[in-house]
Amino acid sequence: MPETISKVDAARRQIDTAIDLYFDDSDALSSYTLAYAGLKVLLDIYPHHQGDGFDTQIDDLLGKEGWRHLSGIGNFLKHADRDPTGVLETFDPESAYMVLGLATLLFRRITGEFSRKMQALDYWTELNAADALGIPEMDGNPDRAAACKQIIDNMNAAPRHVRMAFARTQYQYFLANVERLEAEVEAAQQSGRPLQEILDQAFSGPLWEQFKQIKASERIKN
User: Fold this and answer.
1) Domain boundary, last residue among 101, 136, 171
2) Which of 48, 189, 172, 181 is CA-nearest to residue 120?
3) CA atoms of 200 and 220, how far apart (whole Å)
4) Domain that holds residue 101
5) Which of 136, 169, 188 is where one domain is finished?
6) ∠ at Cα 167 (161, 111), nearest 5°?
7) Which of 63, 74, 194, 201 is most buried, taking the most CB atoms under 10 A from its CB?
């Protein structure tokens, strides 16, 4: 049956699929192609939805060299009329991750919210880059906070295939449990329960079990 699809929804579907491919670690080229296409759509329509100039801030942030790099990969994957024998010599599988980050930021500024899969990407970013992003530790249990930090540090030092296997479990867990967790947090907040009690309950279940399974640095680094 024919669908009516807006530009925003088309971009969302491209980005969501790119996120799936990224966490599945199955085809970085396809993930990049979809992420870049979604990003370009959002950049084109952004001034028609928001007048805050954020799209030009992205231009300034990336600069000419940054855009040349991103568009060079995107155009290589989309066109072959000018370089039918061209070769992409230095493609980094993590390239899609940066494009997805920019695309999801634009999507939220246009629509006011992330899709669930974009939320999962944001959760993963905050989980593995909390220090770099300046996100303060919220867990008042120092032993558990230290254990979690050690796990993340070990994960970031591990080979990419190990990091992506861990990322995939976190992505799947988030999508399967986010609605339940949000409802539990909302109910707890309405009842006046403190944040630490909510964290203690959350880390007493499957989430903490997942972390404990990869706690040993020898396992996560090999």
Assistant:
1) 136
2) 172
3) 25
4) 1-136
5) 136
6) 130
7) 74
DSSP string for residues in the chain: ------HHHHHHHHHHHHHHHHHHTS-HHHHHHHHHHHHHHHHHHHHHH--S-HHHHHHHHHHHHHHHHHHHHHHHHH--SS-TT----S--TTHHHHHHHHHHHHHHHHHSS--HHHHHHHHHHHHHSHHHHTPPP----HHHHHHHHHHHHHHHHS-HHHHHHHHHHHHHHHHHHHHHHHHHHHHHHHTT--HHHHHHHHTTSHHHHHHHHT-SHHHHT-
Tens-digit pLDDT profile for residues 133-183: 778 887 778 887 888 888 888 888 889 998 999 899 999 999 998 998 888
Task: Give yes or no: residues 126 and 187 share one domain.
Answer: no
> Do residues 218 and 131 share a domain?
no
Is the domain of 32 the same as that of 51? yes
One domain, residues 33 and 88:
yes
Average pLDDT, the chain: 83
Task: Tell me which DSSP letter residue 41 carries.
Answer: H
What does each C-alpha distance from 12 to 5, 17, 90, 127, 146 come to in angstroms?
11, 8, 28, 23, 36
